[in-house]
Amino acid sequence: MMTAIGNGSLIYCAQPEFDCAKTWSTKLGVLKLGACNCSLGFNITGTSFLAHTETCTTSRINGKAGCNSNDEMTVNDCRSFSGKSIPRMSTNWNSANIVWHKCSVEKSDREELLKQRGCVIWITGLSGSGKSTVACALSRGLHARGKLTYILDGDNVRHGLNRDLSFAAEDRAENIRRIGEVAKLLADAGVICIASLISPYRKERDACRALLPEGDFIEVFMDVPLHVCEARDPKGLYKLARAGKINGFTGIDDPYEPPPKSEIVLRQNQGLCDSPNDLADVVISYLDKKGYLKA
Questions:
Q1: Among the listed residues 97, 114, 96, the one whose alpha carbon sits nearest the alpha carbon of residue 105
Q2: Which helix (H) or strand (E) holds 175?
Q3: Strand, coil or helix: 76
Q4: Which of 21-35, 220-234, 241-255 has the lowest mean pLDDT?
Q5: Beta-strand (E) ranges in the chain?
Q6: 247-251 contacts at long range (C-beta below 8 A, 24 or more positions apart)
Q7: Residue 219 CB partners (closer than 8 Å, separation 6+)
Q8: Is 246 exposed, middle or buried (0-12, 13-18, 19+ CB in 10 A)?
Q9: What is the C-alpha separation between 222 and 258, in angstroms, rounded?
Q10: DSSP annotation of 257
Q11: Residue 121 and residue 208: Cα distance in Å, rounded?
Q12: Extended strands (E) in 226-274
């Protein structure tokens, strides 16, 4: 068996037969090993674990071996094998004893690969304002320019990741928080993430903005009046809300807080509705001007 490490060092491994006395434990799925002929190990919180249970030898390339070879591996990568400089444990909300593991391949490397800058385009507005339609037009326009995008649509995400959430105030806040965290990961991957959801409260939108570096959260406000959205009513939800069959519906019996300082505002032009492609082009022009369409 052959495993590649970095950009040059190879580890050649013999057949997967343990060269040691071994005992199996059914508790916690742990394999307890005795004295083994293994070449790699790492250390977690002071306890040594074997990283490989096969007889292995390290190939020398350019006269060097392992982490000393002329590859892309950094000191931090090597320390993960040696067990040195273990980061301090931290506690994050209900998750205790967790450590952020940093990789030498960073956002800038992924952006260079994709020839674009990862960011979040957050489209907010009333139901029926055209958020999802503009999001799709924007994704098509960027795709035609060879740019990688992904849409996080409010309804679509509730089919899977957020299907356990209701439309109560606390669940709506959690819905937005989760989408914000996923959007952050996509932007870190170098993707142009398009989040399209009502997100009616400034507090939650601002919290999502705070997750990203300054400039990487681009708020797009669909400034379409309530009476226009209600006249469209593409899902029939306004009619249900007016009939009292839906409670807490944004714009009817639950408030929408317009963004005071969005990067982009898309509104009707003198009473006429611009096409989705026209509105998408406004966003694309902004991205191009700000340098997001190149690494």
A1: 114
A2: helix 169-188
A3: helix
A4: 21-35
A5: 2-5, 9-13, 20-24, 31-36, 41-44, 47-50, 56-58, 60-61, 64-65, 90-92, 95-98, 119-124, 149-153, 192-196, 217-223, 264-267
A6: 248/167, 248/168, 248/169, 249/127, 250/126, 250/127, 250/198, 250/200, 251/126, 251/127, 251/226
A7: 122, 124, 205, 209, 259, 262, 263, 264
A8: middle
A9: 9
A10: -
A11: 11
A12: 264-267
Which has the closest alpha carbon to 59: 79, 37, 85, 39? Answer: 39
14 and 7 in contact (C-beta within 8 Å)?
A: no
Query: Who's near 31: CB < 8 A, 6+ residues apart?
Result: 22, 24, 25, 53
| Structure tokens belonging to residue 235 | 């899902």
Residue 120 · residue 212 · CB < 8 Å: yes
What's the whole-number mean pLDDT along residues 234-246? Answer: 95
* Residue 240 CB neighbour total at 10 angstroms: 14
What is the per-residue burial (b if ≥16 Cβ within 10 Å, else e) of 30-50? Answer: eeebeebebbbeeeeeeeeee
Residue with tokens 């139901």: 127
Instruction: Confirm if 13 and 56 have CB atoms less than 8 A apart.
Output: yes
Q: Supply the residues annotated as catalytic.
A: 199
pLDDT tens column, 275-288: 999 999 999 999 99
3-state secondary structure of 236: coil
| Residue 44: CA count within 13 A, CB half-sphere | 7
pTM: 0.70
φ/ψ (deg, to 5) at 250: -60, 130
d(CA 164, CA 175): 10
Would you state the pLDDT for residue 168?
86
CA atoms of 223 and 130, how far apart (whole Å):
10
For 98-112, give the DSSP string. Answer: E-----SS-HHHHHH
Asked if residues 117 and 263 have their Cβ atoms less than 8 Å apart, the reply is no
